[in-house]
Amino acid sequence: MIIAVDGPTASGKGTIAKALAAHFGLPHLDTGLLYRAVGRQVFLDGGDPDDGGDALAATSFPDSLLDDPQLRSEEVGGLASRVSIHPAVRQALYERQRSFATQEGGAVLDGRDIGTVIAPEAEAKLFVTASVEARAQRRFLEMRERGAGVTLLEIQDDLRRRDERDSKRAVAPLVPAADAMIIDTSALGRDEAIAAAIEAVTQAIS
Ligand code: DC
């Protein structure tokens, strides 16, 4: 069984995908991490994330980079959003995601285009979303815990910019698959969001 979990930054899709993987006993891939590794590698190479050639070269990042704690930073998130608009970058990362999705026994993948491009045949597709305000507030609390000195307004602006770039790009934009179940986590706590997702997947596969 393939479970596709898509949605914008800080919607809670990562938390939900991990919980679904644990509940259904499936391996999980956070595909955003692959784009983040490309963004980080462009930076390490001194390249330009908006240049298709530089970004494509960075797709051959070493696997060890996936363990770099820097990948979770807002800066690298912004770079990831920029490199992800290049079709050649998406193509280069496709096979890796596709083989993870189609492994025997199934998998949970979270990202932006899992239900539309990577695994359109997924048995269960969730589109996890939340208002910009709710997402910014969560990200703000997370960042404050890590000691990062960013304001709520800066985070809101950054989320809006990233949503716009992710939704308007020509290739594999962030849109719910026609058959995706929408879960809005704006007013839900962590456990409520997880329970809603488990319920939706259970219904989809029964
Ligand atoms: O989910 P995230 O914030 O870690 O993703 C970082 C960026 O990577 C996001 O702004 C867009 C890109 N991305 C993508 O284009 N396709 C995916 N399947 C996952 C992430």
UniProtKB/TrEMBL annotation:
Where in this chain does the record put each Cytidylate kinase domain? 3-202
Coiled-coil stretches noted in the UniProt entry, renumbered to this chain? none
User: Pfam families in the record, alphabetically?
Assistant: Cytidylate_kin
Molecular function in Gene Ontology: kinase activity
> Matching InterPro entries, A to Z?
Cytidylate_kin, Cytidylate_kinase_dom, P-loop_NTPase
Binding positions (ATP): G7, P8, T9, A10, S11, G12, K13, G14, T15
Localized where? Cytoplasm
> What coarse category fits the chief subcellular location reported for this protein?
cytoplasm
Keywords attached to this Swiss-Prot or TrEMBL record, sorted alphabetically, are: ATP-binding, Cytoplasm, Kinase, Nucleotide-binding, Transferase
Q: Which reaction does it catalyse?
A: CMP + ATP = CDP + ADP; dCMP + ATP = dCDP + ADP
Q: Report the EC code(s) recorded for this entry.
A: 2.7.4.25
Family that this chain belongs to: Belongs to the cytidylate kinase family. Type 1 subfamily.
Q: What is this protein called?
A: Cytidylate kinase
Organism (species): Qipengyuania mesophila
